[in-house]
Amino acid sequence: MNFLYFILVGAIAGWLAGKIMKGSGFGLLGNIVIGIIGGVVGGWLFTLVGLSSTGGLIGSIIVALVGAVFLIWVIGMIAGKKS
Predict the structure, then answer these.
(1) Is the dihedral of CA 61, 67, 70, 74 positive or negative?
(2) Do the domain assignments include residue 62?
(3) What b/e sequence results for 1-24 when a residue is b if at least 16 CB atoms lie within 10 Å of its CB, and e otherwise?
(4) pLDDT in tens, the chain (83 residues)
(5) Which domain holds residue 65?
(6) How many domains would you assign to the chain?
(7) 80 found inside a domain
(8) What is the value of pTM for the model shown?
């Protein structure tokens, strides 16, 4: 069941991050991958600033979304695109 939870959170966060940063998603698999990696990055970022999420599904999506947006921004900067 945890696996499905990560897939759901990853898909939603990746899709939202794609909409925020590029105006379109990355396809289902791309959204899931970006969202899951974004969840890890978001958890790390939230820890750095002393925050934690205990908001269940919504809190997890927010943390993953913040991480995914940050991840897309960093990748865009490395690739030379300005966001």
Answers:
(1) negative
(2) yes
(3) eeeeeeeebbbbbbbbbbeebeee
(4) 688 888 888 889 988 998 888 755 677 788 888 889 998 999 899 999 998 777 788 888 999 999 999 988 888 788 775 55
(5) 7-75
(6) 1
(7) no
(8) 0.83
